[in-house]
Amino acid sequence: MLNVVTVNTNPYEGQKPGTSGLRKKVKVFLQENYTENFIQSILDANKDSIVGSTLVVGGDGRYLVKEVVHKIIKICGANGVAKLLIGQNGILSTPAVSCIIRKYKTLGGIVLTASHNPGGINNDFGIKFNCSNGGPAPDNTTNEIYSLTTHIKQYKIVPDLVCAVDQIGMQTFTVEDRQFVVEVIDPVQDYVDYMKEIFDFPKIKTLIQGSEQRPPFKMLIDCMSGVTGPYVKRIFISELGAPEGSVRRATPLEDFGGAHPDPNLTYAADLVTAVKNGDYDFGAAFDGDGDRNMIIGRDAFFVSPSDSLAVLAEHAQCVPYFARRGVRGLARSMPTAAAVDRVAAKHGKEMFEVPTGWKYFGNLMDAGRLSLCGEESFGTGSDHVREKDGVWAALAWLSVLATSGLSVQGTLEAHWAKYGRNYFTRYDYEECASDPCNEMMQALEKKITAPGFVGSSFSSGNKTYVVKLADNFSYMDPIDKSVAMKQGLRIIFEDGSRIVLRLSGTGSSGATVRLYIDSYEATEVRGDAQQMLRPLIEVALDISQLRQYTGRAAPTVIT
Ligand code: VG1
Ligand code: CO
């Protein structure tokens, strides 16, 4: 029999979950009781249902995941949790956690990841709680967890509980008078089974391997040394018959090989170069925890995430899951370009615009009003789970291409010809000093909400923009009527062009400023987005005084 020990502790400041969980430097989590406090607070926030419950636990394989898995086992055992489902060696992609929570109807799950942030002892770690719907906890739950961290006095632990997380199977422990079960599961199996239900694997296999009508479709998939490696190898190589060389960086590494596991044109430049110089029809990259995706075509033709969502919405019937169930509403985060809105209007679907962060899609999905959604930050997904899902997005794209026989570029060109084109760019200024960024946001809010701002005009290049609406975006959830305030400063012009500015909620130190610019051209003007948006970018930098406040002449990342 194992004993429960109650340990006295003191609160830490700043354990406030951001856009997606608590993210801090590894060294912050290594402070005495820091991690224990947060885990106990998660369990306390669920105190009415924790005893006898089942939880899912897993992470993206980064530095500290294994150690924290062991802490979670010991703390859950002490708090009366009946069972944990844990990915072998603590490995589970974020969408796989969501899938497993839903499949086994558990109380929720604890996801160990800092997603697209770098890993290793000098970099980031993160802890996130997902609820029984499989999605990231909504604001009222994360606020409750945060509030508990501010006055925590004790946590409970079973110090002598030793569990082998490398061995698949059940391990049963007797903790005082209770049974506590840890089931270590194959991280990939449930997810792969589910993907086979959602997609037509034989059809995608024919695309990849070629047929009498078509040569083999060549692809290169970059797992960026994140968690998707085992999922991608199993799905694309074992199941869909792609050649071994179709996958790169497919072994999860604790520090992602020193790279930034963020699938965009800057951090996945290697993939872009390889696809540009090689004979590939398709390229995809995923982030550290497997919920983001970047899609490129032959010659590294780039699909913007806003367009990717619109294309998948337009061709949803190519995915058997949607063909069977139909498509309910569509949604995007506020800064995401409005390409999908046009598809919704054309197909007569309900359309939602929510704040940044996947947690805001969950209620709409649970209410049966939302099927497909996305964010400009390389997030695409559907109501098959309650997280964005990188591998799902790649399979959805392959389903579209297998049906149409078009190339990636051909698909986009046909889409723009039908709907017109949204030009979009995002400038990230990473890890700036916090105070000047906060001052900049305050000053800008004051400026754009002052009388007279609406109706004023700005000129740059040969363009003049007249302000139609300017505010700090707030959102009322149509289902539970909860309100999220201050979700980003927006300036919308008469012609529909937009400037959006917000501070990141996923960084682990300093402030990251995100500037989003988009505009719409009904008749397709073939041009590079950077060139098309140049005048508006200048207007944005001028109104916000961003260069002066941040001291940065140029952004860290341009998408
Ligand atoms: C960023 C993105 C947001 C995304 C979030 C989590 O948040 O902008 O769209 O949902 O990351 O993605 P922020 O607050 O830094 O802008 V993941 O893949 O890091 O969980
Ligand atoms: Co992620």
CATH architecture of the largest domain: 3-Layer(aba) Sandwich
Structural class: alpha/beta
The tally of domains stands at: 3
What ligands can be seen in this structure? alpha-D-glucose-1-phosphate-6-vanadate, cobalt (II) ion
Average pLDDT confidence is 94
Helix fraction?
25-40%
Unreliable parts: none
What amount of the residues lies in strands? 25-35%
End-to-end Cα distance, whole Å, is: 56 Å
Q: Can you count the helices?
A: 18
Radius of gyration over all CA atoms, rounded: 23 Å
Number of strands: 27
**Lateral strand order in the biggest sheet:** 2-6-5-3-4-9-8
User: What's the CATH H-level homologous superfamily of the largest domain?
Assistant: Alpha-D-Glucose-1,6-Bisphosphate, subunit A, domain 3
* Assigned CATH class of the largest domain: Alpha Beta
Question: What global shape is seen?
Answer: globular
Largest sheet: 7 strands, mixed
CATH topology of the largest domain: Alpha-D-Glucose-1,6-Bisphosphate, Chain A, domain 3
How would you briefly describe this protein structure?
The chain is 33% helix and 26% strand.
Question: How does this model look, in words?
Answer:
It is built from 18 helices and 27 strands. It is α/β, with parallel strands linked by helices and 559 residues long. The chain folds into three domains: 5-187, Alpha-D-Glucose-1,6-Bisphosphate, Chain A, domain 3, CATH 3.40.120; 190-419, Alpha-D-Glucose-1,6-Bisphosphate, Chain A, domain 3 (3-Layer(aba) Sandwich), CATH 3.40.120; 421-558, Alpha-D-phosphohexomutase, C-terminal domain (TATA-Binding Protein, 2-Layer Sandwich). The strands form six sheets. Strands 2-6-5-3-4-9-8 form a seven-stranded mixed beta sheet, sandwiched between helices. A seven-stranded antiparallel beta sheet has the order 20-21-24-25-26-19-27. The longest helix is centred in the C-terminal third of the chain and has 16 residues, at 434-449. The chain starts with a strand and ends with a strand. The mean pLDDT is 94. The structure holds alpha-D-glucose-1-phosphate-6-vanadate and cobalt (II) ion.
